[in-house]
Structures are given as structure tokens and as C-alpha cells.
Amino acid sequence: MFFYLFLFLFCFSRNLMLIRKACRLFAGSRTFFTIAFVRLSTTSSIMAKSKFEYVRSFETDDTCLRNCYIVVRLDGRNFHKFAEQHKFIKPNDDRALGLMTRSARSVMEELEDIIIAYGQSDEFSFVFKRSSTWFKRRASKLMTHVASQFSSSYVFYWKEFFEEQPLLYPPGFDGRVVLYPTNRNLRDYLSWRQADCHINNLYNTVFWTLVQKGGLTTTQADDRLKGTLASDKNEILFSEFDINYNTESAINRKGTTLIWEKRDETVIKRMKLPNEEEKEVLVTRSRRRVEAHHCDIIGDQFWDEHPDILEDDNC
């Protein structure tokens, strides 16, 4: 019995010595690999630098001021010529307006910090929320990303709206970035754009009605409208052509407002039951989607119905 006890203690001590040696070897290896990694990282950082790196100092800081709404507005470049060469219908082409809206929706789906967008004719304004940190709030990054996403979407979805009409050449859009610190400033900006939509559309509606139905040349129609007020233009439409401007399509008179809204949708989902049988069940879930509105955004009603768009001014 003593012999077996002695043999057990001897084997245990030998194994303990082997374990200690293995630990020392592992520790040494870990130190070696740590030193090697540090040396490799240091060498890589040194190799990444060069004598030409000083050119980075020429970059200017274009970070947008914090706690301000960032508005990126795009305008079509030379779109009068573009519309003529692609046979846009006058005064308003529903295909072109639909394509603009589809492209703007693509931008919002890509950049979810855009809380609202407003568009009319060949322009669209995108509003980033006050607390957005996308691209570290760099104006150049925000503007170029919005412009490139919008332009590429315009080309990508062209056939969906214009079908057989070929795209003769790629369109161009220029952009600008403007900051608005308060909710009132932002609402006044959007009101300005919608008022511009009304003024331009009323003029274009009367102008092309005089040409297409009144038989005037474009020069004669332009002369006829010089110095006229909104009331004069409405009178021309109503008294001479029996057209009530207020009954014209809302998308032409009010433009398009895009916002995020939650919508319930029902989908069919296959579920496995305890007895390993599968069964199709209806599942309802809420998802955020970009929805289009053609309504007045100058008054308070729209903003009262969608209080989640604007952030608190006391942020």
C-alpha cells in the first residue's frame, strides 16, 4: 500500500513540473508575439506616412454647426433644355414629377437621418435632423452623398416612368447646404419653397394655356402676363378658359412632401408547430416607410398632425 502511495506522489510531482514548464513557455511565447505585433504595427504606421502627407493640411474644416437643422437643396442643372430634349409635357409632366419623387425617396431610404424632404419642379430639399452625426456633419460629405444618390437614382428609375422615351444624356444636379437653428426658421424655409411652387406653377399654367388653347406664341403669352398679379392670372384662366386653378392637381400646386411614417403591414409567415408540422399564419408588424403628401405645409395643420418631425428648440 505504501508503495502505491509513493508511486502516485512521484507521478503527480513530475506532471506538476511539466505543467509549470509549459506555462513558462506559453508566457514567453505570448510575450514574443506581443512584441512582434507591436513592432509590426509600429512599422506599418511608419510605412503609411510619407513626405507627401503634408497636403492634408490644405483641407478646410466644413463641419456643420451643432444643434442646427442641415438642409441640402438640389436643383436641376439646365433643366429647361433637358425637358425640351426629352419631350416633357407642358406645363407639368406627371412622369417627371414621379421620377423626382422616386429619386428623393431613394435618398431618404439611404440616409435615415433625413426627417423631411420637399420638392417641386426640378428641385428637392432634404432636411437632416438637428442631432444628426452622419459623416461627422461635414457639409461636403452630406451634399455630395445626397447629390450622387439622387442623380444615380434618377437615371436608374428613368425607364420605370418614361418607358420608351430614351435617356439621351445624364442629368446634372447642383447642391448647397444651409443651416437653420430653430423650428421657425426651418418652417419658414419650407414655406418659402412651397410659395415658390405656387407662384411658378400658376404662371406656367396660365402661360401654356394661352399657348396651347389660346393660340398665342410663347412671346405673345409672355407679353400678356407681364405685370399681372395672381388674381389677374386666375381671372384669365377662369373667364377665358373656364379653368378653376384651385381644382388643378395638388401635386402641381403644393409640391411633394416626403416624411417617415409607421404603417402596419400583414405578411404570411410559416411557423413550425410542436408536432413538427408547418402552418401559415398572418403576422402584422409596424414598419417605417417614406410616404408622400401633397398638402399645405405653410399653415399649422400639417405640423400638428406630425409633431414628431421637428425637434425641441430647447435641445
Describe, in short, the structure shown.
This protein is α+β, with helices and mostly antiparallel strands and 315 residues long.
Characterise this structure.
This protein is of the alpha+beta class. It contains 10 helices and 6 strands, in the order H-E-H-H-E-E-H-H-E-H-H-H-H-E-E-H. It has helices at residues 2-48, 79-85, 94-110, 139-156, 158-162, 183-212, 218-225, 230-241, 250-254, 301-305, and strands at 69-76, 114-120, 123-128, 173-180, 256-272, 278-293. Strand 5 and strand 6 (278-293) form a beta hairpin. Helix 3 (94-110) packs across helix 4, helix 6 (183-212) packs across helix 7 and helix 6 (183-212) packs parallel to helix 8. The longest helix is centred in the first third of the chain and has 47 residues, at 2-48. The protein starts with a helix and ends in a 10-residue tail after the last helix.
Fraction of residues in helix: 40-55%
| Count of alpha and pi helical runs | 10
Oligomer: single chain
* Strand segment count: 6
Span of the ends, CA to CA: 82 Å
- The arrangement of helices and strands along the chain is HEHHEEHHEHHHHEEH
* Overall pLDDT confidence: 86
Apparent shape: globular
* Sequence stretches where pLDDT stays below 50 over 5 or more residues: 2-10, 25-38
Summarize the main sheet. 6 strands, antiparallel
